[in-house]
TrEMBL record:
Annotated InterPro entries: Kinase-like_dom_sf, Leu-rich_rpt, Leu-rich_rpt_typical-subtyp, LRR_dom_sf, LRR_N_plant-typ, LRR_R13L4/SHOC2-like, Prot_kinase_dom, Protein_kinase_ATP_BS
Protein name per its UniProtKB record: Protein kinase domain-containing protein
Native source species: Cucumis melo
Lineage: Eukaryota, Viridiplantae, Streptophyta, Embryophyta, Tracheophyta
Protein kinase domain segment(s): 807-1087
Domain of life the protein comes from: Eukaryota
Length: 1092
């Protein structure tokens, strides 16, 4: 009877557990645990032979979601619990303390959060405790170290903070202690008493200062992991004296310095030596040959120098040798090339010289990565390299190799990346089509080929029919290529993303099939002899980011369909024979950064629409046949750095609006027919370094302020009417005497203009009075559009009610601080978003008025557009452009984050464009004051639009204002705004920096991990930067092994920018313009990487 009762109790507990499992994707529990079968036969259950009681639960890797019920505490014979790699979550029931026999509990890689329960310390027989890979936070409870039977404690990859408790010294039996990837700050001396400790892994925490000396006295230690902290100082001279069993030494990504101790090479049991990314100096001694068991050596990115010791070749177990980015010189010891187990040699960016041995590949049958770029190596590539048949990456770029490129490369079935650029390689003479491309057809896995700056002197093949289908990147700049681009290039290289063949002798036309390369992002064919028209098929390349066709013999028109190239950032068509007008579609490329159409025969005028190029940095249309006046809209291109309109037939005056080009460095208007004066507004251009208006018909006084104090006479040559008080400009002096005729003209103008001005002034006063009277009248249920924009369509409360089905919950898009937003279908079929203000909320009326004022007077592609409004005493609403893709917050946290790196970059560039416009592109600077993911809306093309201006501020003439009530969102708010109420443009920059961090980490600044107050999102990023940035960013962005390093480099640049934006001091933060420029550069660099 007792037996039945006991097993019945176990069964009831397990059925309670089954009831608490909310998701069982494989049906392993829900379909197996049945009343009709014995408990001991259930999946994941083991019973004792003697007592027939449940002793073990094992649900590992089942994909389960759920919680542990208190009934589990009745499984009194339970000894082992393993639920790793599931989605179990809080709470953990305290009833587990009723399991006196429990020896092992593994909860790794689940979703438990909050503090580690202190009651875990009441499980006296616990020997192994695994809590890794959860979201546990706060301090490590001291009670945990009451488990004196522990031999294994694994708390890695959580969010634990504070010091390691001194009570850790109680774990006298502990053998393996894993505390890595947390936020711990202090190591107690008591760890030095754990003489049975075999593994101490405290990597990637917040430890700093010298490494505690007692760590090197743990005589049983086999693995010592201290990487990814801020340890400083040197290593002890007797590092191995008390660590006789040390097998793995991991100290990378710290700030350690000094010379490597000579005794290090006496640690004869070392298998891994990882000292990369520190500041070590000196040379590697010959005694390194004592490490006969070593498998991997990581010494990259230090300041090590001297010759690589010959004795490295004695390490017959060596598999990975990485000593890149140091100052090693001399030759590579030939013994290294006989290490048969070696799979990676990385010696890039040193000062190594000499040649490669003739038997290079014979002794390296397992070689996978051969990375020797950026050294001073010479000689040939031995054909024996073919023996390294597993090779995937071969990089000897930027050396002084010569001779023929060996055809044996064609035998590498796994080779993905070849870099031979910046050498002196040649091919067979005389050149033939098959001189190099023949072996490429056998490289079926090839992704990237870099051959630039070698005197190859080869012919392009007639076809790419047999090339690798995965081929993405081809760089052959300045290689002496001749012949024509194969007509079938678009039929076979379908994965190609970048084609770079500038500075060659390529002839013929650009094949129309190139339009089939749908993945193409960069096309570089400048400085060749291409002829014919620019094919319209290029307009099919929707991902094209850079198009370089300058210095060819292209003729005809610029394709009118170029407005299809919405991703285009650089268009370089200079120095050709183009002879048409510039198509109007060109001015629809609103995101273009660099535009060069110089040295052609283009005619026509510059249209007002040139002002649509909102982010452009460089415009060069010099040396054409352009006529007409210079449009004043160019003055709105506030990011412009270089503007060259010289050697055309332009006439009229220099627009006064040019004074708004605050970033302009070069302005060349020479050799035109310009008249009038040089605008005094140009004195505001503090960055202007080169200025040329020579050979025009300008007159009047040359400005003397600002940058004009640095210009010479050469800037003003051949303008007869110019004058100046300075002899430096070599023009006539100005005179203040006015002729009688000119006086009569002036009087006449006064008589004409004065009555007109008086009439206009009276009209303005009348309009202001009428507006004031109209606002004073209270209108009950008289729904009228706001007076800011008379052209709006009229709408009423009744229409809005009908358009939203009576403001139905089914049409509710979201709720905010001042009201609700509904999706509406207006009477004319327009889909819109209706923002209804809750007038019971304090300051709702003020928010409505402010948002109206701002939205009615600003226009930008990345700001939400207002359609109309509806306003009465008791109802106020804005009708806005509808955004079908919701907001950024939804995409980050509710869409399984399908946003890739490029999409996130584009969104953040969109936001930066909007912010830069608000700060610099409107008459008065506007501070948004509430940047956050909820206020970033995404249209059907995933273009970001900034919204919610309800608490924005117009700064007027000053750089900042002070407000008494702060409504900005906690977590995104700049310190000076929260503490002192100081509002400035730098407040938005701070919020943008937080937004940037959040977008690429998927961590909110209000995340629970930051709730303790000891560390915020910024501090978390700052601690990880630069060496541990991969540990904090969204892992989805690093999921591709092939592009891992490139994504990591890009993310590091982004996080550096974000840290700059969020500096404590507003003065140290970047401007919105600097942010935009930096992000564009980051994106441009990212797009050069393979796979993008």
């Amino acid at each position: 009877m007792a037996f039945a009762q006991n097993i019945t109790t176990d069964k009831a507990a397990l059925l309670a557990l089954k009831a608490h499992i909310t998701n069982d994707p494989f049906g392993l529990i829900t379909n197996n645990w049945s009343d009709t079968t014995s408990v001991c036969n259930w999946v994941g259950i083991i019973c004792s032979v003697k007592h027939k009681r449940v002793t073990s639960l094992n649900f590992s890797f089942m994909g389960l979601t759920g919680t542990f019920p208190p009934e589990v505490g009745t499984l009194s014979f339970l000894t082992y619990v393993t639920i790793k790699n599931n989605s179990f979550h809080d709470p953990l029931p305290i009833e587990l303390t009723n399991l006196p026999r429990l020896k092992m509990m593994s909860l790794g890689n689940n979703n438990f959060s909050g503090e580690i329960p202190s009651w875990i310390g009441r499980l006296p027989r616990m020997e192994e405790l695994y809590l890794y890979g959860n979201q546990f936070s706060g301090l490590i409870p001291t009670s945990l170290f009451n488990l004196t039977s522990l031999i294994m404690l694994n708390l890695q990859e959580n969010q634990l903070s504070g010091s390691i408790p001194r009570e850790v010294g109680n774990l006298t039996l502990i053998q393996d202690l894993y505390l890595n990837n947390n936020q711990l700050t202090e190591i107690p001396t008591e760890i030095g008493a754990l003489q049975r400790l075999r593994t101490l892994d405290i990597e990637f925490n917040l430890f700093s200062g010298p490494i505690p000396p007692f760590i090197f006295n743990l005589s049983s230690l086999v693995i010592l992991g201290l990487s990814g902290n801020n340890f400083t100082g040197g290593l002890p001279d007797d590092i191995c004296e008390d660590l006789p069993s040390l097998g793995g030494l991991y100290l990378s990504y710290n700030q350690l310095s000094g010379q490597l101790p000579s005794t290090l090479w006496r640690c004869e049991n070392l298998g891994d030596v990882a000292l990369a990314y520190n500041q070590f100096i000196g040379s590697i001694p010959r005694s390194v040959g004592n490490l006969t068991r070593v498998k991997r050596i990581f010494l990259g990115v230090n300041y090590l120098s001297g010759e690589i010791p010959y004795e490295l070749g004695y390490l017959q177990n060596l598999e990975y040798l990485a000593m890149q980015e140091n100052f090693f010189n001399g030759t590579i010891p030939p013994t290294i090339f006989n290490l048969s187990k070696l799979n990676t040699i990385a010696l890039v960016k040193n000062q190594l010289s000499g040649t490669l041995p003739a038997n290079l590949g014979v002794g390296l049958p397992n070689l996978v990565q051969f990375i020797l770029g950026r050294n001073k190596l010479t000689g040939n590539i031995p054909e024996s390299i073919t023996n390294s048949s597993m090779l995937t990456l071969f990089d000897v770029g930027d050396n002084s190799f010569s001779g023929l490129i060996p055809n044996v490369f064609g035998r590498f079935e796994n080779l993905q990346w070849i870099n031979l650029e910046l050498n002196n390689f040649t091919t067979e003479s005389p050149p033939s089509e098959r001189s190099i491309f023949s072996f490429l057809t056998n490289l079926t896995s090839l992704v990237r080929l870099e051959l630039s700056h070698n005197p190859l002197n080869i012919f392009l093949p007639s076809s790419f029919i047999n090339f690798s289908s995965s081929f993405q990147y081809l760089s052959m700049v300045n290689t002496g290529i001749e012949g024509m681009i194969p007509k079938d290039i678009g039929n076979f290289l379908r994965s190609l993303t970048v084609l770079v063949m500038d500075d060659n002798q390529i002839t013929g036309t650009i094949p129309t099939s190139i339009g089939k390369l749908k993945q193409l992002q960069g096309l570089h064919l400048s400085n060749n002899s291409l002829e014919g028209n620019i094919p319209a098929e290029l307009c099919q390349l929707e991902n094209l980011n850079e198009l370089y066709l300058a210095n060819n013999k292209l003729s005809g028109a610029i394709p009118a369909c170029f407005d299809n190239l919405s991703a285009l950032r650089t268009l370089s068509l200079g120095s050709n024979n183009l002879n048409s007008t510039m198509p109007s579609s060109l001015w629809s490329l609103s995101y273009i950064l660099h535009l060069n159409l110089s040295s052609n025969s283009l005619r026509g005028s510059l249209p007002v629409q040139i002002g649509n190029l909102e982010v452009v940095l460089d415009i060069d249309v010099s040396k054409n046949q352009l006529s007409g006046e210079i449009p004043s809209s160019i003055g709105g291109l506030i990011n412009l750095v270089n503007l060259s309109l010289s050697h055309n037939e332009l006439e009229g005056s220099i627009p006064d609006s040019f004074g708004n080009l605050v970033n302009l460095e070069i302005l060349d208007l020479s050799s035109n027919n310009l008249t009038g004066v040089i605008p005094k507004s140009l004195e505001k251009l503090s960055h202007l370094e080169q200025f040329n208006v020579s050979f025009n018909q300008l007159e009047g006084e040359i400005p003397s302020g600002g940058p004009f104090s640095n210009f010479s006479a050469q800037s003003f040559v051949s303008n007869i009417g110019l004058c100046s008080a300075s002899s430096r400009f070599q023009v006539a002096p100005c005179t203040t005497k006015t002729s009688q005729g000119s006086g009569r003209k002036t009087n006449k103008l006064v008589y004409i203009l004065l009555p007109i001005l008086l009439a206009m002034f009276s009209l303005i006063l009348l309009l202001l009075f009428m507006t004031y009277r109209r606002r004073k009248k209270e209108q009950v249920r008289e729904d009228t559009p706001l007076p800011y924009q008379p052209a709006w369509r009229r709408t009423t409360y009744q229409e809005l009610s009908q358009a939203t089905d009576g403001f139905s919950e089914s049409n509710l898009i979201g709720r905010g601080s001042f009201g609700s937003v509904y999706k509406a279908t207006l009477s004319d079929g327009t889909i819109a978003a209706v923002k209804i203000f809750n007038l019971l909320t304090q300051d709702a009326n003020k928010s409505f008025e402010l948002e109206c004022e701002i939205l009615c007077n600003i226009r930008h592609r990345n700001l939400v557009k207002i359609i109309t409004s509806c306003s009465s005493v008791d109802f106020k609403a804005l009708i806005l452009e509808y955004m079908p893709n919701g907001n950024l917050d939804m995409w980050l946290y509710h869409h399984d984050c399908g946003l890739n790196m490029l999409e996130r970059l584009n969104i953040m560039i969109d936001v930066a464009l909007a912010l830069d416009y608000l700060h610099n592109g409107y008459g008065k600077p506007i501070v948004h004051c509430d940047l956050k993911p909820n206020n970033i809306l995404l249209d059907g093309d995933m273009v970001a639009h900034l919204t919610d201006f309800g608490i924005s501020k117009l700064l007027g003439g000053g750089d900042s204002i002070t407000q008494t009530i702060t409504l900005a969102t906690v977590g995104y708010m700049a310190p000076e705004l929260g503490l002192d109420g100081i509002v400035s443009r730098k407040c938005d920059v701070y919020s943008y920096g937080i937004l940037l961090m959040e977008t690429f980490t998927r961590k909110k600044p209000t995340d629970e991990m930051f709730s303790a107050g000891e560390m915020g999102l910024r501090e978390w990023i700052a601690k990880a930067y630069p060496h541990s940035i991969n540990n904090v960013v969204d892992p989805n962005l690093l999921s591709d092994d092939k592009s891992f390093n490139y994504a990591s480099e890009c993310l590091s640049s982004i996080m550096l920018l974000a840290l700059t934006c969020t500096s404590e001091s507003p003065e140290k933060r970047a401007s919105s313009k600097d942010v935009l420029n930096s992000l564009n550069k980051i994106k441009a660099t990212f797009l050069t990487y393979p796979g993008w």
